[in-house]
Design a protein that fits this description.
Order of helices and strands: EEEEEEEHEEEHEHHEHEH
Largest sheet: 8 strands, mixed
Mean pLDDT: 86
Low-confidence stretches: 3-12
Strand content: 15-25%
CATH architecture: 3-Layer(aba) Sandwich
Strand order of the largest sheet: 1-4-5-9-11-10-12-13
Helix content: 10-25%
Distance between the termini: 43 Å
Shape: globular
Length: 268
């Protein structure tokens, strides 16, 4: 879906200054990128935090709103991917990426960021449809930055958002009780969609026309979000590609037993 074409960073028609946008946390600085065959460049914002880093007491806990800042945050470089098996993450990225440029992959628990691609002149009051991409990877590997929304944004005249969410044990560890309820990765997705509702208008998007779409584990996530009351009114259309919530492997009945096995393996 996110098909790539040759891009260039040196189009003479770029606005004289890089884009700066207000968000509910503070201002963010992006960059203009041109796409071959299109006069209007795409404004790109990479690594906007939509939640606080899930570290310390926030590990294995619901995401919390990002802390505000009082400066212009530079959002022109790819954020780290969520913690995962590095080799598996590299293989998936090499297999599925549609970026022309090669970027070094980095991994961190501090990973709750999103990227935005908008084709509009941000000096005008445009309101374009919004498409939010949820990456695949078996809920174990992957990241938003594997997929560039640049060409989709330019070709279809839509605002594209790619989001990240906690993976593996960091995203789905559960004891089956109040101590660690689990599904943190899905709650991250809900938090990202809530951020989009609050802020996307400032990026030229229409918060009343949001489509979520994803492939494999991303498609599964889309299917779950369609069913979840937590995501009500956060999106309006959904595209689930090769994944649904009915897959039995997603469900564990005895989470406490699984948690004890993990604790044993970790020598806890």
């Amino acid at each position: 879906v996110l098909t790539s074409l040759t891009t260039s960073m040196t189009w003479a028609g770029h606005p004289s200054s890089p884009p700066v946008v207000d968000t509910s946390q503070g201002k963010v600085l992006g960059k203009h990128v041109s796409v071959e065959g299109f006069a209007q460049p795409v404004a790109v914002f990479l690594g906007i935090p939509f939640a606080r880093p899930p570290l310390g007491s926030l590990r294995f806990a619901p995401p919390q709103p990002a802390e505000p800042w009082n400066f212009v945050k530079n959002t022109t470089s790819y954020p780290p991917m969520c913690s995962q098996d590095a080799a598996g993450g590299q293989v998936l990225s090499d297999l599925f990426t549609n970026r022309k440029e090669s970027i070094p992959l980095t991994f961190s628990e501090d990973c709750l960021y999103l990227n935005i691609y908008t084709p509009v002149d941000l000096r005008k009051k445009n309101r374009l449809p919004v498409m939010v991409w949820i990456h695949g990877g078996g809920l174990m590997v992957g990241g938003a930055s594997t997929y560039s929304g640049l060409v989709l944004s330019a070709h279809e005249n839509v605002v594209v958002v790619t989001i990240q969410y906690r993976l593996g044990i960091w995203g789905y560890f559960s004891t089956g009780d109040e101590h660690s309820r689990g599904n943190w990765g899905l709650l991250d997705q809900v938090a990202a969609l809530r951020w989009v509702q609050e802020n996307i208008a400032n990026f030229g998007g229409n918060p009343g026309s949001v489509t979520i779409f994803g492939e494999s584990a991303g498609g599964i996530s889309v299917s779950i979000l369609v069913l979840s009351p937590l995501a009500k009114n956060l999106f309006h259309r959904a595209i689930s590609e090769s994944g649904v919530a009915l897959i039995t492997a997603l469900v564990k009945k005895d989470m406490k037993d699984a948690a004890q096995q993990i604790a044993f393996l970790c020598w806890v």
